[in-house]
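Most newcomers find our protein records easier to grasp once they have seen one. A learned vocabulary of local backbone shapes supplies the integers on the structure line. An example says more than a description, so a record of this kind follows:
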Amino acid sequence: MVYAVLVLDEAEAQPFPVWPFIILSFFMGGFIYLVYFGFREPSRVLRPQTKYQKRIETRKNMILLSLVCLSLVLYGLIYGDWSGYIASFQSNGLVHIMSIDFILISLLFPILVKDDMIRRDNYNTLDWAIYSFIPVLSALYYLNRRLEK
């Protein structure tokens, strides 16, 4: 969902429709964004939000997204079983692929954040590093801070 918000924000600047990538990402995971990054042209111009974007990027929705994500992270930290995960990672292809998917998404996120910060004319290296440092949590922090500016 976090990627969807950022990709949707630069949709008007792309020479192709981005909605198929957003929809497919819910079924195929972050691997579909590798294709998106292959076709994507970095946008440096902030364009007016569409009606659809205005409905999605509300304070209430970003708080809801943050609460859901934080709940899942806390659930994993409290009830997660690292030894079970490692065993599943080694023996279950789905767990293996989903883990690699998460790592790739986390490594590509700083590119989207940097371009978004430049579009909004508030890029500085320290803030960018903070927003890119911790997967998921930093992204949520960025999306919520972005609404304040």
Remarks:
- Residues 2-41+49-148 form one domain.
- The radius of gyration is 16 Å.
